[in-house]
Design brief:
The protein has about 1000 residues and is mostly beta strands. Strands 25, 26, 27, 28, 29, 30, 31, 37, 40, 43 and 44 form an eleven-stranded antiparallel beta sheet that branches. Strands 32, 33, 34, 35, 36, 38, 39, 41, 42, 45 and 46 form an eleven-stranded antiparallel beta sheet that branches. An eight-stranded parallel beta sheet has the order 55-54-53-52-49-48-47-56. A hairpin with a 2-residue loop joins strand 33 and strand 34. Helix 3 packs parallel to helix 4 and helix 6 packs parallel to helix 7. The longest helix has 17 residues. The protein is globular, with a radius of gyration of 32 Å.
């Protein structure tokens, strides 16, 4: 065996009480025959230096020899001499110590290297604890030195030694137990802000150090990661993160993979996160990248040999062998054929074949089978698969005609039956002239059923999803909400490791970016379930796909307990759209429209302006320092400088107070609204209806006349324990009467004061799984629907509702939703926001009237070009067009006057249309070109996310823009025409710059 740094920490620490052997040193055998040794700190042969001294031990402590060595501080040391062992090897050393506060020591074995350890405190200075590490010893005599490193070390009672298996040679296969690589190792490479930092003792980092400050464009690269052979390995990441943070990990030259790591208990507690990675034989590199955001502190990684993923599922039989046709019927363009062993459903766009012998289905578009071997499943006391039922029954006479928001069509049901099992119904909705159908599932029994895992669409066979195009195949992974700077990801379809980390929420697109053709799958009902989409693929096809109700995740949905179980004699799955499109972007828009057909977007009532909201929000400018005087100054500045210079929508301008509006007195709030209205503007306000930021559980809830306390309305688990804080706040139960009265109290005040716009924030807390006051709310989404519906009822259509941090679905409760998390105006955050536009553009005008790119804090861009880029990103996003600068800052004033008063640019924003990405193969990044068609005209935005100059080439054919000799491109910021050559436009950009073009194609 070889030893890298000499000592290897075992992740085990046990506090011990009671007496040990009352001898200076001893040798013993345990029942298994393993030899162990004990050596007293106060033994005469040991060497003490500096202030170290032998002290009597209090009887209550229970030291083994009634003595200890203490006063190890300020350059002192204790050296155990005569540590005699019968055989060379790796030994587990248990240090018995006393320390009323966290302290450290360095351990030196023989002539090796010194290693530092941070020991947690014991209960007090009268209680012993133990700490285990592994050390290499030679046969015969050894020395073990404890040094305080000029600091403070614990008092030492004794050490115990036993032979162990420890230590891993980097050249040996890391199977079972792994090879540890420290983040702070000198061979690693750090960039940006990343730096080696000392760990607090209570954090118990393995070597007392970590790499922190991984933010704002910083990286940590582990070098010289040795693997004995090419294959799949498990990586255990030891990290510290007091809040949820993301990190991108790239192995060697591969594609970076984004991971969202859950928060640890606090910033002084380590956590473990496990992923799988494929390593090459020999040396490897593993890069941790913050992607311009904030990543956890990294302690170490452990690399462990891993078995390959489970065997690929077997081939599916010939589903199309369904025998002779025995009956048929037509419903307009929809045709149904009943065969001896199955049925065929078609509408001219697609064909569904169901085999009633195997219980499997196949879906076909344009003569090509896209999905093969489809079935349904549910988890009750065991998993039930529709394909495994004894009978799969279909009857022509049970076909139902339907007419709903999607159009006219038919409902077809296949009943799966078997004695002793509940009936499982697979239900297809087939519509006239639509490229998609809907599939759902009902499970029916005479007795109550209960589940949190119901999947109407499952594929488990090699190549089961094959889109027929193989140039650059991708799977879209969508986040549940926009919290914690979540990103979309267009991931390579050839992913078969860590797939639980790539469960997409509510929807996915399986597409070839080169041809753009692809399959769209997603839920169109959001009343009971959080829908997850699990997948796994290879060879440019999917081998596994499961679309299921019951998705919960600490990183995606922020749940700390499993999805709530739905109970009843009939359990219905989410309804899933399945459609194939020549352009996946059109498919995503079609998915949005299908959702809007089920739950229409919130209407504009009572004179609430229907156009794009334009104005100002306080958070980026003042955060917690908001005051009445500042609000008035903003209102006056906008009146004098902006709202008559095109930064308005038909004269409407909003001046919105964000969090900390309660810095103003009630009278100041009323007066502020009057000033804003007098200046020809509308007033906006902020609230978080489902969060409690305090800790006083006895605090009375506002609006309840003392009937309820916050301890009564916060959301708890099934055992009655409060759910852990998320984003620093407790979740409030949306179904509790106290939380509803609280909403009524605040929202009625806002209406009475004259506010006509409200930003509601941290809404995801209302969707958390827990035990709700209303027993009918069995799931988080059921409770969320109840809470949001109550908000709409209280507001009565009198305010523009902007959902800030919120789930993507359900979507019918707000006029706008933030398309991403907070954007502070920096270039990196602008790129982050545009990642969410790249793959979330389809929400605009379908499920939400407007998509909100967050406010524009221009002064934080760092340069004029970056500030202009922030404006461009807001213009093309759908949009809620809000500035958030400090009007008392001269630099901010100058930027606002220059960048918010370009009439041509503002007119594009006021169209309220989100631009489409030209490319969709950016992984977790943003596209750098976007296009929007408006009548006969086109608009194109081109971005440079680096601080270095760049040349971008717009290909008109790829962008879908006709290119003729009469086609003209005009830069809307400079009003200058640009040359178009051979159907291409070359765009020269400074660092952080972007350009916005209007293209007239005649």
């Amino acid at each position: 065996m070889k030893f890298g740094r000499g000592l290897i920490v075992i992740l085990a620490l046990v506090l011990l009480f009671g007496a040990a052997m009352n001898v200076p040193n001893a040798q013993a055998e345990d029942q298994a025959g393993a030899v162990s040794y004990s050596f007293e700190a106060e033994a005469a042969g040991n060497l003490l230096s500096g202030k170290a001294e032998i002290k009597n031990c209090e009887a209550a402590v229970g030291c083994s020899g009634n003595q200890l060595v203490g006063s190890l501080w300020g350059g002192s040391a204790l050296q155990f001499n005569g540590v005699n062992v019968a055989a060379a090897g790796v030994y587990t050393m248990t240090v018995h110590y006393i320390s009323g506060d966290p302290r450290s020591f360095a351990v030196l074995v023989n002539d090796g290297t010194s290693d530092r350890y941070d020991l947690p405190k014991t209960a007090d200075w009268s209680t012993r604890g133990s700490y285990e590490i592994e050390i290499p010893l030679k046969e015969g005599n050894n020395t073990i030195r404890f040094d305080d490193e000029s600091g403070y070390s614990p008092d030492i009672d004794k050490i115990d030694l036993r032979l162990s298996d420890g230590g891993t040679d980097p050249g040996e296969p890391p199977v079972g137990s792994g090879q540890v690589y420290e983040a702070e190792a000198p061979s690693n490479q750090l960039t940006g802000n990343a730096a080696v930092r000392a760990c607090k003792a209570e954090t118990a980092c393995s070597e007392g150090k970590k790499v922190g400050d991984i933010w704002g464009g910083s990286t940590l690269q582990f070098n010289q990661i040795n693997a004995p052979s090419e294959g799949n390995y498990t990586l255990k990441i030891s990290y510290i993160s007091g809040d949820p943070r993301a990190v991108s990990i790239k192995v060697n030259g591969g594609e970076p993979e984004a991971y969202s790591l859950p928060q640890t208990a606090n910033w002084d507690t380590t956590g473990l996160y496990t992923i799988e990675a494929r390593l090459q034989a020999g040396s490897n590199t593993i890069l941790f990248d913050d992607n311009g955001g904030w990543s956890p502190d990294i302690d170490k990684i452990e690399v462990i040999g891993s078995e390959a993923p489970g065997e690929e599922p077997g081939e599916v039989g010939e589903i199309g062998n369904i025998g002779a046709k025995i009956d048929s019927a037509k419903y307009g363009p929809i045709k149904v054929e009943e065969h001896k062993s199955g049925l065929i459903l078609s509408n001219g766009e697609y064909k569904l074949t169901y085999n009633t012998k195997s219980g499997l289905a196949a879906y076909e578009w344009n003569g090509k089978t896209i999905a093969n071997g489809v079935y349904s499943s549910i988890m009750l006391d065991k998993q039930l698969d529709s394909k495994s039922y004894a009978e799969h029954l279909f009857a022509m006479k049970k076909i139902e005609k339907i007419k709903d928001g999607h159009g006219k069509g038919i409902r077809v049901t296949i009943e799966n039956k078997q004695a002793g099992l509940p009936t499982m119904k697979q239900i297809y909705h087939i519509y006239e002239n639509l490229p998609y159908f809907l599939v759902s599932q009902q499970v029916v029994s005479d007795s109550a059923l209960s589940t949190n895992d119901i999947a109407p669409l499952v594929v488990s066979n090699k190549g089961g999803i094959d889109i027929g195009s193989y140039s650059d195949n991708r799977v879209l992974v969508a986040p549940f909400d926009n919290d914690a700077w979540s990103r979309y990801q267009s991931r390579t379809i050839n992913t078969s490791l860590n797939n639980n980390n790539y469960v997409s929420s509510e929807l996915t697109a399986i597409y070839d970016n080169t041809s753009r053709s692809g399959l769209i799958i997603g839920s169109v009902t959001h009343d009971n379930w959080k829908t997850g989409i699990f997948w796994s693929g290879s060879d440019d096809r999917l081998n596994k796909l499961k679309v299921y109700g019951g998705f919960s995740s600490s990183t995606s949905t922020h749940d700390t307990i499993p999805h709530g179980k739905v109970t009843g004699t009939t359990i219905t799955s989410p309804q899933i759209l399945v459609g194939y499109y020549g352009d996946y972007r059109e498919g995503l828009e079609s998915f949005g429209e299908a959702n809007a057909a089920v739950a229409a977007p919130l209407e504009f009532d009572h004179g609430v302006p229907k156009g794009v909201p334009v104005g100002w929000n306080s958070w980026g400018a003042y955060e917690s320092d908001l005051s009445y005087d500042k609000v008035v100054a903003v209102s006056d500045f906008f009146k004098a400088n902006l709202q008559k210079s095109s930064f308005a929508n038909k004269g409407d301008v909003y001046i919105n107070m964000d969090s900390y509006w309660d810095n103003l007195t009630e009278q100041q709030l009323k007066q502020a609204v009057k000033v804003i209205n007098k200046n020809g503007q509308k007033a906006g306000i902020y609230y978080g209806p489902f969060v409690y930021w305090g800790d006083n559980m006895d605090q009375p809830v506002e609006g309840t006349n003392g009937k309820y306390t916050y301890g009564e309305i916060i959301l708890r688990d099934q055992s009655g324990n409060p759910l852990p804080k998320v984003d620093g706040a407790y979740a409030i139960d949306p179904t509790h009467p106290g939380s509803k009265q609280r909403i009524e109290y605040y929202f009625n005040r806002f209406i009475d004061y004259g506010f006509t716009y409200i930003k509601i924030d941290f809404l995801s807390h209302g969707s958390f799984e827990g035990k709700h006051f209303d027993p009918k709310a069995q799931t988080g989404i059921q409770a969320y629907n109840q809470g949001m519906a109550h908000i709409n009822k209280v507001l009565g259509g009198k305010m523009f509702i902007s959902a800030s941090i919120a789930p993507l679905f359900p979507s019918q409760y707000a006029h706008a939703r933030r398309i991403s998390c907070d954007v502070d105006g920096t270039l990196s955050k602008t790129e982050y926001q545009l990642n969410n536009l790249t793959y979330g553009f389809w929400q605009n005008g379908t499920i939400y009237p407007y998509t909100d790119p967050d406010y524009m804090t221009l002064v934080k861009g760092g340069s004029f070009d970056a500030a202009q880029t922030r404006v461009n990103s807001a213009v093309i996003s759908g949009t809620v067009f809000m500035n958030s600068d400090d009007v008392n800052n001269p630099a901010a004033q100058e930027l606002m006057k220059k960048l918010l008063t370009n009439k041509q640019v503002n007119e594009v924003a006021l169209k309220g249309k989100a631009f489409r990405p030209i490319e969709g193969n950016t992984g977790t990044g943003a596209a750098d070109m976007f296009v929007m068609k408006d009548g006969a005209d086109y608009y194109v935005a081109v971005f440079n996310y680096t601080n270095e100059p760049a040349t971008k080439t717009l290909d008109f054919k790829r962008a879908g823009i006709p290119a003729t000799s009469k086609t003209k491109a005009t830069d809307l910021w400079t009003n200058k025409a640009s040359d178009i050559t051979a159907g291409q436009l070359k765009v020269e950009l400074n660092g952080a710059q972007s350009k916005l073009f209007k293209i007239k194609a005649k």
